[in-house]
Specification:
Blueprint: E1 2-7, H1 12-23, E2 28-35, H2 40-50, E3 54-57, E4 71-74, H3 78-83, E5 89-92, H4 100-108, E6 113-115, H5 119-129, E7 136-138, H6 141-149, E8 158-165, H7 181-185, H8 194-202, H9 204-217, E9 224-228, E10 234-240, E11 245-249, H10 255-263, H11 295-305, H12 309-325, H13 334-344, H14 356-376
Parallel strand pairs: 1-2, 1-5, 2-3, 3-4, 5-6, 6-7, 8-9
Antiparallel strand pairs: 8-10, 10-11
Helix pairs in contact: 4-5, 5-9, 5-12, 9-11, 12-13, 12-14, 13-14
């Protein structure tokens, strides 16, 4: 029996993680949950269903009825506090750079972290990996695939890694000038939260994953590629020095990588449906159109510059996506904002990030510059 903590329990990853727990009560016990300020009813329902002794919310107070025996922590540091519980594994499913603090808190407490919060490594990769890469089990489908494929060889035998991308909502749409929010949220293969879905549509999500892969696997940016794979069945590939390529394939369902991370090094039986080989399949791979989707090349650039530059890239994107969701920015201007902020703050971004407060400061700077640029568009 493994004691687990789930951060972001009311989001897409958190809900699916609890479904894995519910299907395997003999394997997992939930000892802590955290969620944002806007879904107390679901958080309380989860606490009841799984008899969770401690929950956390970023709200100033909790407004739903709690089961007997459940305590609640409120406030901005609540997720970090629950992440510090002694647990076998902490699953971080929080969206956004606010997930970095809880990741660091979980690692500082000596916990293994199942990491779905890619921004932890994008904004604070050096801070996170100083605890040791062996303390991180990736949950993103692409990085889970790489993690599994790398078991086929030794680290020095890896020639390159290839992250697959669905291409998002607009992989076959040429004119992006009049994209609506509904258009951007209509992902062809995955069901995800709005921010991740929009990031998939701009391919910023793949850019973030490239930076994440660099930190997770200690591999140079020159060895990381991305390719469009519309079917989203091959989740990523590792090419070895002998010319062999090892791929991990499964239907597009996050329960597989979630269960793999929670159960590692053991696999959870029937975590997700397998590919039906009694039917015909066609898998397509094609290069990224970097002219239409500049996010990946920009991610390579900020990643190679390092230090605070990836945090600036991510923070600027968070602001631009928020403005698009609110109807204050055109979809086609999201990357324009991100690129302008990166260019504007390149000098500032070359400072070392010593701790969480340094990350917060540079993110606030990026937010301010992004807001100024958005206001002029």
């Amino acid at each position: 029996m493994r004691d687990i903590v789930i951060l972001g329990s009311t989001g897409s990853i958190g809900v699916q993680a609890l479904e894995v727990v519910e299907a395997n009560p003999e394997l997992f016990r939930v000892i802590g949950l955290s969620a944002g300020a806007n879904n107390h009813a679901l958080l309380a329902e989860q606490a009841h269903k799984f008899r969770v002794p401690l929950i956390a919310t970023s709200a100033a107070q909790f407004t739903a009825e709690l089961p007997e025996g459940t305590s609640v922590i409120c406030g901005a540091q609540a997720s970090a506090e629950v992440a510090s519980l002694t647990a076998d594994i902490v699953l971080n499913g929080i969206t956004g750079s606010i997930g970095l603090g809880p990741t660091l808190a979980a690692l500082a407490a000596g916990n293994l972290v199942a990491l779905a919060n890619k921004e932890s490594l994008v904004a604070g990769g050096e801070l996170v990996t100083k605890f040791g890469r062996e303390k991180l089990i990736p949950v993103d489908s692409e990085h889970s695939a790489l993690f599994q494929a790398m078991l086929a060889g030794k680290a020095h035998e890896v020639k390159k890694i290839v992250l697959t991308a669905s291409g998002g909502s607009f992989r076959d749409r040429e004119d992006l000038s009049n994209v609506t929010l509904a258009d951007a949220l209509a992902h062809p293969t995955w069901s995800m939260g709005p921010v991740v879905t929009i990031n998939s549509a701009t391919l910023v999500n793949k850019g973030l994953e490239i930076i994440e892969a660099h930190h997770l696997f200690n591999i140079s940016y020159s060895q990381i590629e991305a390719v469009i794979h519309p079917q989203s069945v091959v989740h990523s590939m590792v090419e070895y020095l002998d010319g062999s390529t090892i791929a991990q394939a499964s239907p597009p369902n996050m329960k597989g990588p979630i269960a793999y991370a929670l159960g590692y090094p053991n696999r959870v039986e029937r975590a997700t449906a397998a590919i039906d080989w009694s039917k015909g399949h066609t898998w397509e791979f094609r290069p990224v159109d970097h002219a239409r989707f500049p996010a990946i090349k920009l991610a390579h650039r900020v990643g190679e510059l390092g230090k605070g530059m990836p945090a600036i890239y991510n923070a600027a994107n968070e602001r631009a996506v928020g403005a698009f969701i609110e109807g204050r920015l055109k979809f086609s201007s999201i990357l324009q904002v991100v690129s302008s902020v990166v260019e504007s703050l390149e000098g500032v971004g070359q400072s070392e990030l010593r701790d969480l407060s340094d990350v917060s400061a540079i993110e606030q700077n990026a937010h301010s510059v992004a807001d100024e640029i958005i206001g002029k568009l």
